[in-house]
Write a structure and sequence with these properties.
Strand content: 35-45%
Number of helices: 3
Oligomer: single chain
Strand order of the largest sheet: 1-2-3-4-5
Shape: globular
């Protein structure tokens, strides 16, 4: 197998892990009473994994899948938080009806061991 094929296989496996993690997070949000407004939303500033709403609260969710939830937490870097804030701004301009009185940035951390941690209000823009 060539290096290109190995990269492609790794990329496909990573993509599959990511979509499976997002599906688990989406199910948890549904059980918590949230309505999913969007999945893997691409904006000019970057991608948002999940957008959900419950009442007047809209949440932007970053899903991270790693070997364990602790490693996943470290993957939500300051650079990534800034990108998410910019992507949220772009989304608010494009879909103003999705946003009510509250906006929160959450992180959902998924470990390969099955652990799932939901960090509500994980960060605020400018942190």
């Amino acid at each position: 197998m060539t290096e290109r094929h190995l990269r492609t296989a790794r990329g496909q496996a990573s993509y599959a892990r990511g979509t499976a993690a997002e599906a688990r997070c989406e199910a948890l949000l549904g059980r918590a009473g949230f309505t999913i407004l969007g999945r893997r939303i691409r904006t000019g500033a970057g991608e948002i994994d999940l957008v959900a709403r419950k009442g007047t609260l809209t949440i932007i969710v970053e899903v991270k899948a790693r070997p364990n939830a602790t490693e996943a937490a470290f993957a939500v870097s300051p650079r990534q938080r800034a990108r998410l804030a910019a992507a949220a701004e772009a989304l608010m301009a494009a879909e103003p009806g999705w946003f009510g009185e509250g906006l929160r940035f959450d992180a959902m951390l998924v470990g390969a061991d099955g652990e799932l941690r939901w960090l509500e209000d994980a960060f605020r823009p400018g942190d």
